[in-house]
Amino acid sequence: MYGSESSTVPEDLERTAFRRAEKKYKLYYEDTYKSSKKKRKPKPVDLSEVLDFNSILESYYQNVELPHGVVPLRCGFDRPVFSLENRPGFYFIPGALSVKEQCQWIKESLTSFPQPPNRTNHNAFYGPINDLFIAANERKALVADWGSNSECDPSVSNGGVHGWKFFEEHEVSSKGSTCKSVSALVLLRKLRWSTLGLQFDWSKRNYDVSLPHKKIPDTLCQLAKRLATPAMPLGEEFQPEGAIVNYFGPGDMLGGHLDDMEADWSKPIVSMSLGCKAIFLLGGKHREDPPIAMFLRSGDVVLMAGEARECFHGVPRIFTDGENDEIVTLERQFSHEDDFSALEYIRSSRININIRQVY
Ligand code: SIN
């Protein structure tokens, strides 16, 4: 599902309205800056059609008319919740998470969520990796362990690697040129997803209950239950059983897709945005349906339940430049907490935690 600025898409997909919107909003750079990566300048994009729930919230508080099709929900939730007339089951809660909560979940997403037995995109190649964030802060490198062989054995499928272990950078250089290694910082930057609770198997696009797993942390469960209430009109309680954490770096996008592997689509997906601002595309039941574009900022929460569960959606763009990322308050909070490595990470990243009831 992930792509980057350089990904190619088959021509026939370009014909759908969803794909055209993805192309419109995704990050392109000015040609003149192509040769020098450091100075690359994003091409300007027309954002006039992107719904902005920050200004919608302001209009709501000032009793000013809302954009056509945006409807405030009367549901007794402790913050304003908005729905969209032509996308039943979709709810937007602007600024649902306090800045403190945002910091907390960013830190958890970097430290505890990628810890085994939770799986990440790195599992397929490296196996389970413990303490990646700590290793990245300590500038360590992950080094291949060849077991009794002293170096790579080309006759074996993975070169004969028995496992991977973190070492100090200076220890790696003393191992010589045959040593296969990758810096922990690079691995942290290449972290794309981790899965909590029931583990999602991306190759089968389904949950694999046979995989070892821990329950979703209780504080996250309680938060998700509370946030889900506007989409649970019958007063039932949402039961968080699995969550996917998506990590976005500059130029990353999440292509249009459906989240349809859960048994009961009347239950919402609770989706929390953290870090840099993004554009979210909410399509219809077919890729040909023109999607609605909206900004997602740190602390915003989106619920997708019922009919909205059948709608294609994706994230074509995140904004990592100081002018547009809109993370000033987050930066302040992180500086207070002396958490400079998390701050450094989130300055050019976005994290999305989406929590699901699987059965
Ligand atoms: C998703 O649809 O899986 C994630 C959406 C987001 O990143 O906001």
Automatic annotation (TrEMBL):
One of its GO terms (cellular component) is cytoplasm. Binds 1 Fe(2+) ion per subunit. Residues 239-359 form the Fe2OG dioxygenase domain. Fe cation binds at H257, D259, H313. GO terms for molecular function: broad specificity oxidative DNA demethylase activity; ferrous iron binding; oxidative RNA demethylase activity. Keywords: Dioxygenase, Iron, Metal-binding, Oxidoreductase. The keyword Metal-binding applies. GO terms for biological process: oxidative RNA demethylation. Pfam families: 2OG-FeII_Oxy_2. The keyword Metal-binding applies. It comes from the Eukaryota. Its cofactor is Fe(2+). Belongs to the alkB family. This is Fe2OG dioxygenase domain-containing protein. It comes from Prunus dulcis (Almond).
